[in-house]
């Protein structure tokens, strides 16, 4: 069998396929057991599916093809017809589920599922669990331990808020300076050293005062730097 097909649980195509589980294990000690492939359709349109197998004579599939409607899920029942035969122990087969949009005959997505017959599934699972062990804690002299191995107090980076703080302070001073300028059409405006084009109107001074009040409130509520 080609190596590209042997890559189990690989999605291909332009339409992701949501199919679980990624592998199926049948139990030789329980030959009548059946397994389920669950196919989800999270899309807003129907999808058409088809189940293929590298050993179709060894399996029966209930509803090997059909349509899954939008936001629906379907369970595909699979039974191993040769699970009682010891000659099939350890043999690896593959199922391939292909999907496409309803009304479009071209394949939009597919997924390969590995299938294997085990002598005793419970014993295999127990052996798999027993093969994992706790990772031992390495004892290192605390004086020679690297700094990264010690717990450190988390200090959030305040550089961005510091820049914002300085910008707000500068803006507050600029607005306060503008508020000291003579108001437009004031009698003594001719005696001011500030060019007349920079003289704000009364409504502009009210607006700048409002903005200055907001900035001062933000600065007062900001936590102390350090």
Automatic annotation (TrEMBL):
<feature type="transmembrane region" description="Helical">
    <location>
        <begin position="165"/>
        <end position="184"/>
    </location>
</feature>
<dbReference type="InterPro" id="IPR008962">
    <property type="entry name" value="PapD-like_sf"/>
</dbReference>
<feature type="domain" description="MSP">
    <location>
        <begin position="19"/>
        <end position="100"/>
    </location>
</feature>
<keyword id="KW-0812">Transmembrane</keyword>
<dbReference type="Pfam" id="PF00635">
    <property type="entry name" value="Motile_Sperm"/>
</dbReference>
<dbReference type="GO" id="GO:0016020">
    <property type="term" value="C:membrane"/>
</dbReference>
<keyword id="KW-0472">Membrane</keyword>
<dbReference type="InterPro" id="IPR013783">
    <property type="entry name" value="Ig-like_fold"/>
</dbReference>
<dbReference type="InterPro" id="IPR039283">
    <property type="entry name" value="MOSPD1/3"/>
</dbReference>
<protein>
    <submittedName>
        <fullName>Motile sperm domain-containing protein 1</fullName>
    </submittedName>
</protein>
<feature type="transmembrane region" description="Helical">
    <location>
        <begin position="204"/>
        <end position="221"/>
    </location>
</feature>
<dbReference type="InterPro" id="IPR000535">
    <property type="entry name" value="MSP_dom"/>
</dbReference>
<feature type="region of interest" description="Disordered">
    <location>
        <begin position="128"/>
        <end position="154"/>
    </location>
</feature>
<dbReference type="GO" id="GO:0005737">
    <property type="term" value="C:cytoplasm"/>
</dbReference>
<keyword id="KW-1133">Transmembrane helix</keyword>
<feature type="compositionally biased region" description="Polar residues">
    <location>
        <begin position="139"/>
        <end position="152"/>
    </location>
</feature>
